[in-house]
UniProtKB/TrEMBL annotation:
It comes from Dokdonia sinensis. InterPro entries: GyrI-like (IPR029442), Reg_factor_effector_dom_sf (IPR011256). It holds the Pfam family GyrI-like. This is AraC family transcriptional regulator. Residues 149-295 form the GyrI-like small molecule binding domain.
Length: 298
């Protein structure tokens, strides 16, 4: 009996010591999100950029982020771990730590609701509500295997962050339109973006903003506009509805679909746009066809 009591006491003591001095965080919030890890990753970063004192300090793939948030005279570390459940549902664990007040918080949290707990729960809820509002404003439908468009194009090469892509399109939309009219070049379909390089660590891209045109031997030379032929490729396709600023949400949905179906893809998406954002209107009625090319079979 004495040995059993001693063993129980040792277990309790070790458990308390482990909680106080080894347990790596002060509080944890769990929730599910009706989207994929890539979209969650981008949503966290977008929300972070809106904070006055938020900073992403580490990232491991799309499924692990570390964020520093300064609130008042306290500095909190938010560790986000995202686990996909299926192609449209993810489980999220948010671990929050205040290194400066680690021991007092661990002593207080099990016994009373602290200001730290109230503040961190409110902060995560703020993100949760904004994320759901964003998901209500977009729609991504996976269409399956397809073929990318083949056409001759007039294009402008651009580069920047993913979130700046729509700004680049709007900047050059009128220029391309006016030049094609000036040069009497016949258009041959909706404009599209051809991503040629995607750095998933920095969320930056190199891309061509393209206007499909009818090929002609005497296409005029221009200091800004280039010409080339684009050939078709086997791909997986999604239909995106929403503001074109966040059309890359379909990229992540296609990558998740590829992973779930054991498909090898090239991370060089192509987006074909059927609405002019300058004309406004209900953004859920804006449509873009998004393609993720499959790797060529050897």
């Amino acid at each position: 009996m004495k040995k059993a009591i001693i063993a129980i006491v040792l277990i309790l003591v070790l458990g308390i010591l482990g909680y106080l001095f080894v347990y790596p965080y002060n509080y944890q919030v769990n929730f599910e999100a009706k989207t994929n890890p890539g979209t969650l990753n981008q949503s966290i970063k977008s929300w972070n950029s809106s904070l006055e004192n938020g900073e992403i300090i580490a990232q491991d793939g799309w499924e692990h982020l570390e964020q520093k948030i300064v609130q008042g005279d306290s500095t909190y570390i938010y560790t986000w771990d995202i686990t996909p459940i299926n192609d449209s549902l993810s489980k999220v664990k948010v671990r929050i730590d205040d290194k400066e007040n680690d021991l007092p918080l661990k002593l207080a949290v099990p016994f009373k609701k602290t200001d730290f707990e109230i503040r961190t729960k409110a902060t995560v809820k703020e993100f949760f509500d904004l994320m759901n509002s964003h998901l209500d404003e977009i729609r991504v439908t996976i269409d399956g295997k397809s073929i990318t468009p083949a056409t001759y194009v007039a294009y402008v090469p651009l580069k920047g962050l993913q979130i700046e892509k729509a700004r680049g399109m709007m900047q050059y939309y009128s220029l391309l339109t006016n030049r094609m009219i000036k040069y009497d070049v016949e258009l041959n379909g909706p404009p599209f973006v051809e991503v040629t390089e995607w750095n998933t660590k920095t969320d930056s891209i190199h891309y061509n903003f393209c206007f499909p045109i009818k090929y002609a031997k005497d296409l005029p030379e221009d200091p800004i506009i280039k010409y080339k032929r684009i050939t078709s490729k086997e791909a997986i396709k999604a239909t995106y509805n929403g503001n074109y600023i966040t059309s890359d949400r379909a990229w992540y949905a296609l990558l998740q679909y590829a992973e779930d179906n054991n498909l090898e893809v090239e991370k060089t998406p192509l987006e074909s746009f059927f609405n002019n954002p300058n004309m406004g209107g209900d953004e859920l009625n804006w449509r873009a066809d998004i393609y993720m090319p499959l790797k060529a079979k050897e």
